[in-house]
Amino acid sequence: MVTKAFSTLNAVLLWMLTAACIKTGRPQIARRAIDLAEARMLKDCWPEYYDGKLGRYIGKQARKYQTWSIAGYLVAKMMLEDPSHLGMISLEEDKQMKPVIRRSSSWNC
Cα(78)–Cα(80) distance, rounded to whole angstroms? Predict the structure, then answer.
């Protein structure tokens, strides 16, 4: 699911996904998305956006080495390394984070 999600996810939105994952106690989803972004965007020279139904192609008019693509990735990575940074972008009423949700050992997927 994360693979499909990232293929349509713009790097600028990666930090928002990371924030949502941390707030809901699912940082492992953000970690997978960041790992995918790291591999793919580095190879693709940090494009502005991806095109296509599944987001597999670099956009026809997408520029490479985009500051906001790199910045979105870096902010996501920093939030994952130190979740307290989430407070800088959260609204006052959203300050509480949920505990990390762990899968039971009997659930295999």
Answer: 5
Please report which residue ranges of the chain form alpha helices under DSSP H: 2-8, 11-23, 27-43, 67-81
Residue range 102-109: mean pLDDT, rounded: 57
Cα–Cα distance for residue pair 8/49, rounded to 1 Å: 9
Strand partners, 57: 51
Confidence class of residue 69 from pLDDT cuts 50, 70 and 90? confident
The 10 Å Cβ neighbour count of residue 11 is 24
Q: What is the pLDDT of residues 19-62, one digit of tens each?
A: 999 988 999 999 999 998 888 888 888 787 776 666 666 766 77
0.90 exceeded by pTM: no
Q: Left (φ > 0), alpha (ψ -120 to 50) or beta: where does 45 sit?
A: left
